[in-house]
Design a protein that fits this description.
single chain; 560 residues; alpha/beta; six-stranded parallel β-sheet; 23 helices; 37% helix; binds thiamine diphosphate; binds magnesium ion
């Protein structure tokens, strides 16, 4: 037992949880906490907006596999976290967000800077807590970290009254967690795995489908082993990219709205689809009734609520992939696998005959070229972080991700403004790896204040802004589905991104013609500190293929 202030206890809890960095922004209700941070010299990065802090914690978590932590004050501090918490929730990212709350007697009185952050975040957190008694603090913090990282990971909010920070008590950190109503599973039923192996054996046209659960559970090596043992083709959701490199002969690429021809056709033609850590998002399935119409569906997931949520499953294995995949591999290794070479070569042929269409860029730089040249200039362990829009899809299509956790992107919520702050977190997690952001002229503006944080902390990010002077993805939909009525989707090229970078203390560079690309990229990568490179790309390039909304996966628009 140690006597300490509630504020000091929070920091002690972070130490006990082996937290190495927190991202935050101070204010009235967390002043005592910040005073304790000052005295304890606990590692903390001051962002320029609370949304920056929460995305940074998220990027840190995605890159490292550890729990990300952010801090904000009550009221507007807490509400500024909301988009980031929802982003993390949709992609199952382990986060603990600590918010200050007004004094206990003031709660519910519309006190200055009061917002019901637990009420607001209930639908977008795995769990949340309001702490009104200092004695509850150690148990709540212990539970918060436990809930965030175990089972299907997710964000947890701990809302702490300022009175708790200011109270003194006898601190003791619990050794274990005991909660009624929460017991995350690890193992499943071995009989379910046997049934899956039997189905794999029988299928004529099997297809493995990997999603975000694979990087989250660090099981890419098992997926690869299963693929290579069986010889089955593999497709990936946006969140599963990096599980198998695009260059792997069995990997057909991304499936869904902007998926490859091969991945989408294979989905339509397969007779067995094995979903591994996926949630059958509508960007993958399009209309569910037309999704994988000939296939028996197998679903491997840790969350029983995912099974039969969007797509009915014929077979399921509800367990941690760290349990089910090794067992599946073990049993697969003991089987004879008859050749599916004909099926695999059919899948490969689809991709060969219909490669990803590339835009004609005219005088400007073609977006796919940006992805390919950046890839060529970077090592395989570089971390790529994207914003949301066309540039995100071009990165997913044309950058060859060869390692798990090498693509950080807001898949579920599609949050513009995610990229730059998430990359700060990734760079903190991996100080020695190159971290590159692909952003757009729209997205970068949503958290461009964080350029100042990047410069202040000397984070050597390389930020590549694909400037098409439009909210390109919106513009594309208006071009394709709204009679070219470009309602409020142009940014009119009004921003000088080089000057913006320089104003924030970040080196700015510009690429305005294709022949400058390699040279400027080399110059940017040679700079030790942060660099923003604006690349001028054409305003009317489309992301293709595209499955029009409501269409079937085999009804892709391929070109023109
Ligand atoms: C916070 C937020 N607001 C609105 C949208 C809707 N939206 C999706 S993509 C997009 C355009 C993105 O523009 P930009 O960052 O320039 O990327 P581009 O598509 O041009 O590559 C918009 C507005 C969103 N995803 N997120
Ligand atoms: Mg744009």
């Amino acid at each position: 037992m140690m006597k300490m202030l509630g504020a000091e206890a929070v920091i002690e809890c972070l130490r006990r949880e082996n937290v190495e960095m927190v991202f935050g922004y101070p204010g009235g209700c967390v002043l005592t906490l910040y005073d304790a941070l000052y005295r304890a010299e606990f590692p903390h990065i001051l962002t320029r907006h609370e949304q920056g802090a929460v995305h940074a914690a998220d990027g840190y978590a995605r890159a490292s596999g550890k729990v990300g932590v952010c801090i904000a004050t009550s009221g507007p501090g807490g509400t500024n976290l909301v988009t980031g918490i929802a982003t993390a929730y949709m992609d199952s990212i382990p986060l603990v967000a600590i918010t200050g709350q007004v004094g206990v007697p003031y709660i519910g009185k519309d006190a200055f800077q009061e917002a019901d952050i637990c009420g607001i975040t209930t639908p977008i957190t795995k769990h949340n807590y309001l702490v009104k008694k200092v004695e509850d603090l150690p148990r709540v913090m212990k539970e918060a970290f436990y809930i965030a990282r175990t089972g299907r990971p997710g964000p947890v909010v701990v809302d702490i009254s300022r009175d708790v920070f200011n109270a003194t008590f006898d601190f003791a950190y619990p050794e274990t967690v005991q909660m009624r109503g929460y017991s995350p599973i690890f193992s499943g039923d071995p009989a379910d795995v046997e049934a899956v192996v039997a189905a794999l054996q029988q299928a004529e046209k099997p297809l493995l489908f990997v999603g975000g659960g694979v990087p989250l559970s660090d099981t890419a090596a098992s997926v690869r082993r299963l693929a290579e043992l069986t010889g089955f083709p593999v497709i990936s959701s946006l969140m599963g990219l990096g599980t198998l490199p695009s260059s792997h002969p069995q990997h057909l690429g991304m499936v869904g709205m902007h998926g490859t021809y091969g991945a989408n056709m294979a989905t339509m033609e397969c007779d067995l689809l094995v979903g591994i850590g996926v949630r059958f998002d509508d960007r993958v399935t399009s209309l569910v009734k037309d999704f994988a119409p000939h296939a028996k569906i197998v679903h491997l997931d840790i969350d029983p609520a995912e099974v039969n949520k969007n797509v009915r499953a014929d077979l399921k294995v509800v367990a941690d992939l760290r349990w089910s995949l090794p067992l599946l591999c073990e049993q697969a290794a003991a089987c004879e696998w008859r050749s599916r070479a004909e099926w695999l070569s059919q899948c490969q042929q689809w991709n060969r005959e219909n490669p990803l269409p590339v835009a004609d860029a005219g005088e400007r730089v073609a977006p796919h070229q940006v992805m390919e040249r950046v890839k060529a200039a970077l090592p395989d362990d570089a971390v790529i972080v994207t914003d949301v829009g066309q540039h995100q899809m071009w990165a997913a299509q044309h950058y060859d991700f060869v390692q798990s956790r090498s693509l950080l992107t807001s898949g579920g919520l599609g949050t513009m403004g995610y990229g730059l702050p998430a990359a700060m977190g990734a760079q903190i997690a991996h100080p020695d790896k190159p971290v590159v952001v692909f952003s757009g002229d729209g997205s970068i503006m949503m958290n461009c204040q964080e350029l100042s944080t990047v410069a202040d902390n000397g984070l050597p990010l390389k930020i590549i802004v694909l400037n098409n002077e439009v909210l390109g993805m919106v513009n594309q939909w208006q071009r394709m589905f709204y009679g070219k009525r470009y309602s409020h989707s142009s940014t009119h090229g009004g921003t000088d991104f080089v000057k913006l970078a320089e104003a924030m203390g970040v080196t700015g560079m510009r690429v305005s013609a294709p022949d400058e690309l390699d040279l400027v990229l080399a110059q940017a990568l040679a700079v030790e500190g942060p660099v923003l490179v604006e690349v001028q790309v054409p305003p009317t390039a489309d992301v293709l293929p595209m499955v029009p909304p409501g269409g079937r996966l085999d009804q892709m628009v391929l070109g023109g």
